[in-house]
Amino acid sequence: MILSLRNVSYSYPDGTPALRDVNLEVRSGEIAFVLGPNGSGKTTLLLLMAGLLTPTEGGVTFYGKPLGNWFRKHCGILFQDPRDQLLAPTVWEDVALAPKQLGLDEGEVMSRVEEALRFFGIEDLASKSPLRLSRGQAAKVILAGLLAHDPEVLLLDEPWSSLDAEGTEHLLELIKLFKERNRIVVISSQNSDMAAEISDTVHILKNGELVMSGLASDLLVRVEELREIGIRPPLVPSVSRMIFPADPPVLRFEDLLDRLERTNSRSSRP
Ligand SMILES: Nc1ncnc2c1ncn2[C@@H]1O[C@H](COP(=O)(O)OP(=O)(O)OP(=O)(O)O)[C@@H](O)[C@H]1O
Ligand SMILES: [Mg+2]
Hints:
Bound molecules: adenosine-5'-triphosphate, magnesium ion
Helix content: 25-40%
Radius of gyration: 20 Å
Mean pLDDT: 95
Structural class: alpha/beta
CATH superfamily of the largest domain: P-loop containing nucleotide triphosphate hydrolases
Oligomer: single chain
């Protein structure tokens, strides 16, 4: 399965150009990160990938087929402000919305909702009105709904911005679960450390243009270039650059430790 954008441009109805000539593909089993400064077009890109916005030019396809209403059941999204997307009178009913729309029988809906509420530790919110939730709680409710939905494409817009430590861990588990199930996961984030930890590919936007696109291991170590674009580079490559300025920086903590150990053993040799 491939989610593909070809020559996609998008301008908002007031004339603001938000994206220009974007080409990218995300494949099954891939965790893709979209990075970029404020206003660079990350949210717009995710809304186009969800089929909630239609490109002004170019096209978005899933499995070669242009997005349309049919795509709804295959795609789930967490909005940047999840309080904008809670619709049902209670949390329980909100989490049950997608499984019901999929036409699952009552028993399966019940078990999916209960499992999803348990997964995010929010069983106690089940009968609460979604209008009375904090932003972090609302995010957990939407994420529980996405787990109950189990779509082929999962889109998360700044998912860590309001989650506590436990919520962050549960979300990481959810993302890993989707990867194991060979789903497509696209995450917009300012958090390049999280990208360094879990992403396969990275797409970097600046002023509505895709300025870098490729493997995380290639792009996230380009510390100076990232800074120039306005992205805070991940910690490990930044530290690696400081300690070993002559060597190509490493992305992961284990690799940095490895390099430090090798350097130490070389320098302590008689
Ligand atoms: N509804 C809208 N109407 C008009 N312009 C919009 C609208 N939503 C966003 N924009 C503009 O489109 C551009 C891209 O915005 P977008 O929200 O996609 O950026 P972003 O990268 O998600 O930013 P942030 O990091 O702040 O979430 C910005 O210039 C923004 O002002
Ligand atoms: Mg945004």
